[in-house]
Amino acid sequence: CLSRTRTRTVPGEGSPSAEVLFVGEAPGRDEDRRGRPFVGAAGRLLDRMLAAIDLRREDVFIANILKCRPPGNRDPLPDEIEACRPHLLRQIAALRPRFLVTLGRVPSHVLLGTTLGITRIRGIPREFPYPGGSAVLIPMFHPSYLLRNPAAKREAWADLKLLRRLLAGGE
Fold first, then answer.
1. Distant-in-sequence, close-in-space partners of 43: CB < 8 Å, separation ≥ 6
2. 10 Å Cβ neighbour count for 76?
């Protein structure tokens, strides 16, 4: 159980009436220390990405698959994902977002039930049913991936423009 090795639980934060729910993988060191999602370097990039499409952190909701940091920032284990999945699904159903943006490989695999690489599935909207509704799910690169691979920012910008268009009611 990750509760033995974490400092804080990081349930997520943002507007309870947000149209967009961003889902990452798991809290990192900075998030574990502060109890907030996406507050390190990847979080600063996410804030800039939001600003580029005229959104603020306060306009969206940001959560993770896992609510506790895995030791050493390792990938979540299957049993940890399964233990946390019900919490995330309840969160999605309670927030009722119009759009669900998965940030990176792990949340995209978990919510889509696929093993296809993020480079193959990113930017392709699909319907995501949840209890009491559905959202348009858009897989995107994780901001930490973009920090390591700046060349991927072109695709990330295309994905952000897609989200902005969909939010505005366009196709």
1. 30, 31, 37, 143
2. 21
